[in-house]
Amino acid sequence: MAEALVADLCEKLGIRERDPKTLPGLTLAYIGDCVFEIVVRTTLVESGLNHVSDLNRIATRLVSAKAQAAFMKTIEDSLEDDERDAYRRGKNCNSTSIPKSATRVEYHTATGLEALIGYLFLEGKKERIFELCEPLLKEAVGGKGSA
């Protein structure tokens, strides 16, 4: 369901019309934040969880800056050159608002992950989004709350 939704969004929005390499890192992160959240939430629903409190608790944990930063560290070595560039562009953005629940480094790393996801989405590389996110999603769904 999540992969089909992302594919439909790519097609309906005509995402190939803008070159993601020309967009600012925070713009990529803005899009990536939404896509990452959709992927996480739909994957959790597909797993059979149906209590909103459980869904929200797990999703909130997975999309937090702290969790995203930790996850990014696990996939960083598997990135292609263009993906590394998108990650760096997001990570190196100058942001003035850092959430209290994360350190500055965690926040910037999480922003880099979101920029990477946004870049891949706008490039139409939905399969790559799921390939990179698979370990995180398997852990979340496998433990149904242990993430």
Description:
- The protein is mainly alpha-helical.
- The protein has a single domain, classed as Ribonuclease iii, N-terminal Endonuclease Domain, Chain A.
- The chain is 71% helix and 0% strand.
- It has seven helices and no strands.
- The chain has helices at residues 2-13, 25-46, 52-62, 65-75, 81-91, 104-122, 126-143.
- Helix 2 (25-46) crosses helix 5.
- It is globular, with a radius of gyration of 15 Å.
Domains (count): 1
What does the oligomeric state look like here?
single chain
- Any guess at the CATH architecture? Orthogonal Bundle
CATH topology: Ribonuclease iii, N-terminal Endonuclease Domain, Chain A
Query: If you compute it from the alpha carbons, what radius of gyration comes out, rounded to the nearest whole angstrom?
Result: 15 Å
Strand tally: 0
CATH superfamily: Ribonuclease III domain
- Quote the average pLDDT: 85
Spell out the helices and strands N to C.
HHHHHHH
Secondary structure: elements and pairs:
Elements (H helix, E strand, L loop, with lengths): L1 H12 L11 H22 L5 H11 L2 H11 L5 H11 L12 H19 L3 H18 L4
Helix pairs in contact: 2-3, 2-5, 2-6, 2-7, 4-6, 5-6
Question: What features would you highlight for this structure?
Answer:
147 residues, mainly alpha, Ribonuclease iii, N-terminal Endonuclease Domain, Chain A, 7 helices, 71% helix, globular
